[in-house]
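Instructor's aside before we start: the two examples that follow are unrelated to each other. I chose them only because their records fit on one page, so don't look for a connection. First example below.
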Amino acid sequence: MNPESRLDWIGTLLLALGSTGLIYGLMKGSDNASHFFNSPMLLFSSLGLLVFIIYGIYNHLKDNETVLPLHFFKVKNFTAANIAVFLAGIASNGPMLLLPLFFQNTRSLSTIDAALMLIPQGIGMLIARPLLGKAIDRFGARPVVLVSLFITLLGTFPLVIAGDSTNLYWIGLVLFVRGIGVGGLIMPMMTDIFIGLKSKDIAAASVGNRIIQNLGSSFGSAIISAVVTSVITSQLAGQVTNSLNKLMNSTSTNSLPFTAIKVRALAQASKIVTLHAYQSGFAVSCFVLVLIIFPTFFLSSKLNTK
């Protein structure tokens, strides 16, 4: 840190307003996922982007003497690591939002039981954290992130095909594996952010990284919520019709009133579509995890150094 520097109040305010506008806009979009790009979403997101553009002009006029100098993005490691952190926020935070709902709405678990099902993931994260420091020092960020990505995919993809009858012990094991991967994902990226920067720039670089982390997490929640809601909205009516036709043709329901058959068809369709929606959300997370591979190749590695 530079002890002679003063707090950049204007830059801090602009970054705070820009981040708030984007995050709030995404929240308004996910509130109405059937029309994600609704008026409030476009308004607040546009205002957030406009404030960031104003910050860019302000940074230029101040010759990079701001709370977050934009010339940092000329450094390969800083840019690649922040892109990876942003995507990791989407890939990790989205499923974190879905998992408790998955257990409650598709497996009919109570809130407490759903929370207990998440314990294996937390244990996996705790196991990974103490090993990260030595691994990063020995191999560099790139190999550690690539291994963590593989493990995270290994622990996330099974959720794409997990059904309402999948053994809960098996899901717990999958979440344990996922926890190990997620636990080793973001920290190596964060350490690589400071490579190529001067010591006095570390505090400013941390500010930018924190903003990007928060935006990534918000994007993750908004995108996953939008995907889940969109699948439910688009598939529910058709699935109700299919379930109703099957029940009407079933001999076991011939004696039931039509109203009772409709209620049973709606319940069956809702459960099937909800499961498909959560599976789609996990699939999006897997896709984003694959995207992280590309910026990861620009991170540091000690395997090719002598």
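Example two begins here.
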Amino acid sequence: MLNVEWMSIEGALVSTLTDLEFCKADCEQEQALMINVDDSDGNECIEENSPITPKWD
């Protein structure tokens, strides 16, 4: 009879998913922040998104 031992990866998987969720939330929060850039006259302020915009499905 073949004896097969199974290793539980549940703990590692849950840990990895939790880390990914934190990373995703952090990236989304950074993406939501706007960067204010003064124009050359110094009278107006232009809002632009962060140059790195990760896309999450």
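Helices lie at 10-32.
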